[in-house]
Amino acid sequence: MKKYRQLTTELTFRCNAKCPACHRVKPLRINLNDKKYTISLDKFKQLFYPELLKNLDWLVINGNFGDSVMNKQFREIITYVKEHDTRILIHTNGGIHDHNYWTDVGNILTKRDIINFDMDGLADTHSKYRINTKFENVFSNACSVIKAGNAQVHWKYIVFEHNKHQVEEARQMAVNANFHTFSTVKTSRDVFAPKTGNFIHSKKNKENMDNAERVIKCVWDNWGKWYVSPEGLVFRCCWTGGHYYDEAQSRFYYPPKFENLFNGLHVPLEKILSYDYWTKLQNYLKGYDRSFSLCKSQCGKIISSIEKTEENLTTGKKVLFDSHSQNAQVREA
Length: 333
Description:
14 helices; globular; alpha/beta
C-alpha cells in the first residue's frame, strides 16, 4: 500500500466556542449540529481502516467548523488511531472537560504526538475572541496534558490589537509551565487585527498585495495532504472542504456525483486519493487567471497560516514562516 504523509479531519462540526471570525458564522446550507456531522467510532474505523492508518505518517485533527473534543467518543477514537502507531496532531480551543479528561488524553498520546491549545491572550483578553472559553480553564487543561508527560503541548497565540502587549508575558508562562512550543500568529482577519506594531499581517499592506506573485501555490498538494469531513467526504484542502457547505458554492467547482465518488464511507480512501482528479486539478491551477477564486484568495497571493513564528522552548530555535516565499526558515533564537 502507498505511504501517505498527512490526512486532516475533524470528528464533529459542533463547537463550544463562538469565535467571531470563524467559518461557522458564514451563511451555510447545513445545520452544523446535525448528528450526521459527528462521526461515530464505528464509522471512523470504516473510514480510517487499519491498513490505511499503518501507512499514514500523520493524522491531523483540526476543525473547519468544530472542535473534535465535542465528540463524545474522542478518546476512544484517538486510542484506536494510536493502536496503529499513526502520529496525531490535535488542534483544540481546550475550553471544555476537566482535569481527569485531559489527563486521559495525555496518557493516550505518546511522545511522538502533538496537541495544540489555542490561547489568544491572558485571563483578561483571551475570551474577547475565543468567546465561550475561559483562559484559566484552557491553561489548566493544557497543563493536565503536560503533566501526563507524553505528548508535545503547543501554545498557539493569535496576536490581536487587544492582546499584542501580552505576548512576552504569555511566552514566559509557557516556559514556566513546560510547554514544548509557543507560536505567535499574525492575523489576516478583519476582526481585532493589530493596527500598529510588529504583528501586522502582510495582507493588511496594499503594496504587498499589489506586488504579490500571481501564481497558485497549492500548499496542501505540495505537502501531500487532504481534508476529510466527519461525513467522510474528501477534499484537496480545508478551504475547499469548508466552502462546500457554504450557502453559495460559487468560488470552487465540485465534480458531479461528488458526494458518492468522494465519500470515504462509500469508496475506500486509498482509491479516492489515487483519482487522477487531483492531478487534473493541479494542472488547471497552473493558469492563474482561469483559476477558482477560492484558490486565488488562499494560495494565489499570501495566506494567513504562513505568517507565524513558532519557537521551540526546549531548544530555543524559531521557525519563521515567510509570507512571500511560503518557506519556513529555522534560525537560532
